[in-house]
Amino acid sequence: MASGFSRGAPLEAGWPVLALIIAAAAVLTVPRPVWRWFGLFVTFVHELGHAFAALTTGQVVKGIQLRFDHSGQMHSMGRSRFAAAWTGFWGYPVPAVTGAVLVWAAFNGWAGFALSAGALIMLAALLFIRNAQGLLIAFGCATVSVLLVWFAAPPVVSWVTLAVGIALLAGAVRDWLNVLSVHTSRRRSLQSSDAFILYQRTGVPSVIWLAAFAAVITGAAAAALWWARPA
pLDDT tens, 173-212? Predict the structure, then answer.
């Protein structure tokens, strides 16, 4: 895996290949049967975003739970109201931010580094998983990443990195629309919404948090398009 941390050749692909990559990303996020599985990875990234945000504020991460219904939970210890709000915010935006970074990595020769780093992060995250479903989800995601790093040819690594990056961006939009529907038409599920939880913790209305999620996701998508403009 060590060789995967060096810079490789930037992605060079014509429009036919790029069209296939975009189509692959769409297949991962649009059809419900496929999203049922890829969405588990998006949820994993979502919860890792909460965990990383908690660590940046000095909190102790107690554990992460992931479930097959695409729900998850990250438990941390900290007394600061700011820390709780910061940690609660970085869930929905992180898949989009990660996706944008993967797009940049693919077009700048760092696809192997991105997949290698991602594999190590997911392997380390196994130490914090606290339920059986979560272990299966996390282990499956980590295994796919490790196999790609070890066995995929460099061009394939770049193609996969770009496809996953685009799919994470699309997945972030899909999850945001889902949480928006919780606040508009499925209000019985409000307790599962990060925006509602942030409202309870801070007094700031949920609509502000939803708008903030959308702003970061939109910014990540714009950055990805900017980085992809040479193609």
Answer: 999 999 999 999 888 888 889 999 999 999 999 999 999 9
- Cβ atoms < 10 Å from Cβ of 132: 11
Please tell me the distance from the alpha carbon of residue 86 to that of residue 74, in angstroms, as a whole number: 13
CA–CA gap between residue 50 and residue 48 (Å, rounded): 5
Of 54, 56, 88, 93, nearest to 201 (Cα)? 88
CA-based torsion, 228, 25, 120, 53: positive or negative? positive
Tokens 């995601």 sit at which residue? Answer: 141
Alpha helices in the chain (DSSP H): 15-29, 32-56, 81-89, 93-107, 111-125, 132-151, 154-184, 194-202, 206-227
| CA–CA separation, 178 and 190 (whole Å) | 12
Region 95-109: mean pLDDT is: 95
